[in-house]
Write a structure and sequence with these properties.
mainly alpha
């Protein structure tokens, strides 16, 4: 495949931009509009907290912390993608970080018995593995 490396880093880059955009949206929901922040797609933090403002604020703050880490990961991923365009070894860090991310998300099944939210941690890994495979195809072709 002639343009496998280019397609690979474009996929990585799109994923980074999606992480950044969704994390920023989550920051807005948790800090700017906590009454619009839905838990499990049905309840606001205030409803879950049953009127306790401190608990509602803590629930929104937890989402804000998760959004901050998501935003940081997205920016770091974008930086790795920019390095990957020129230095092809950088993809190993992208894959490692994505495997850890998906692994921690999947731990919710045995520890919490919850499957809600699995797509958020596993779908990006699928995109990253596809992009990695394309990069490896291109690397193999260049070495041959």
């Amino acid at each position: 495949m002639k343009h496998a490396h280019r397609i690979s880093w474009i996929l990585f880059g799109l994923l980074a931009v999606i992480y950044i955009a969704l994390s920023l949206l989550s920051v807005v929901h948790s800090y700017v509009n906590p009454s619009g922040d839905l838990i499990a797609g049905r309840f606001t933090p205030a409803e879950v907290a049953n009127g306790d403002e401190a608990v509602a604020a803590a629930l929104s703050a937890r989402r804000g912390t998760a959004a901050a880490f998501g935003l940081g990961y997205g920016i770091l991923l974008l930086g790795a993608v920019l390095a990957y365009r020129k230095e092809r070894r950088a993809f190993g860090w992208i894959v490692a970080a994505s495997l850890v991310n998906a692994g921690v998300v999947l731990l919710r099944i045995p520890f919490l018995g919850v499957t809600h939210g699995l797509a958020g941690g596993t779908f990006p890994l699928i995109i990253i593995l596809i992009a990695t495979a394309l990069g490896l195809v291109d690397r193999h072709r260049a070495a041959a």
